[in-house]
């Protein structure tokens, strides 16, 4: 359960980079991930304020800094899936919803080429509805029918990235 909670917190930090900076004047990315990027904060702020990357080098460095966090989240959520068979039906549905929601967000982040300094990936209404229905149905299915595999390959919603410029 610690892995799932940690992954979801990290997903939220990656997802909300632009919003956290513009609305709250906060950067929640670990300093060790961004320390090698010269003038990280000022370049991030400029990119977030503009809504596009006028500095392609920064965008490339930003993606490289965020990639290990995204990979770590995938791994933590996959490890968290091992908890599912041990849970009661109600807990199984809720935890499965959290895990699959995190996986879907990670897929959307990757579909946007990790450019969360420009765009905030989020779940569509249909994605949220699908996740709730899968969790609800999964809680009612016999245990032997429950799917427990990672959704990494299927998590993307199919939206394209911005390519870093407009």
How would you describe the overall organization of this protein?
The chain has about 170 residues and is mainly alpha-helical. The protein has helices at about 1-15, 15-25, 30-35, 40-50, 55-80, 90-110, 125-140. The chain has a single domain (about 1-150), classed as Farnesyl Diphosphate Synthase. The protein is built from seven helices and no strands. The model is unreliable at about 155-165 (pLDDT under 50). Helix 1 (about 1-15) runs antiparallel to helix 5. The longest helix has 25 residues, at about 55-80. The chain is about 60% helix and about 0% strand. The termini are far apart.
Task: Report a brief summary of the structure.
This protein has a single domain, classed as Farnesyl Diphosphate Synthase. The protein has seven helices and no strands.
């Amino acid at each position: 359960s610690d892995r799932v909670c940690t992954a979801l917190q990290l997903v939220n930090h990656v997802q909300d980079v632009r919003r956290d900076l513009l609305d709250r004047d906060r950067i929640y990315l670990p300093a060790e991930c961004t320390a090698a990027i010269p003038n990280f904060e000022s370049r991030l702020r400029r990119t977030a304020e503009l809504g596009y990357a006028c500095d392609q080098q920064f965008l490339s460095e930003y993606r490289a800094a965020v990639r290990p966090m995204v990979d770590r989240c995938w791994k933590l959520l996959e490890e968290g899936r091992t908890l599912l068979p041990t849970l009661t039906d109600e807990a199984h549905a809720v935890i499965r919803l959290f895990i699959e929601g995190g996986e879907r967000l990670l897929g959307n982040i990757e579909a946007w080429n990790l450019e969360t300094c420009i765009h905030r990936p989020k779940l569509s209404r249909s994605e949220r509805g699908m996740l709730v229905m899968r969790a609800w149905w999964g809680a009612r299915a016999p245990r032997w029918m429950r799917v427990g595999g990672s959704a990494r390959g299927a998590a993307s919603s199919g939206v394209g990235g911005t390519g870093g410029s407009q």
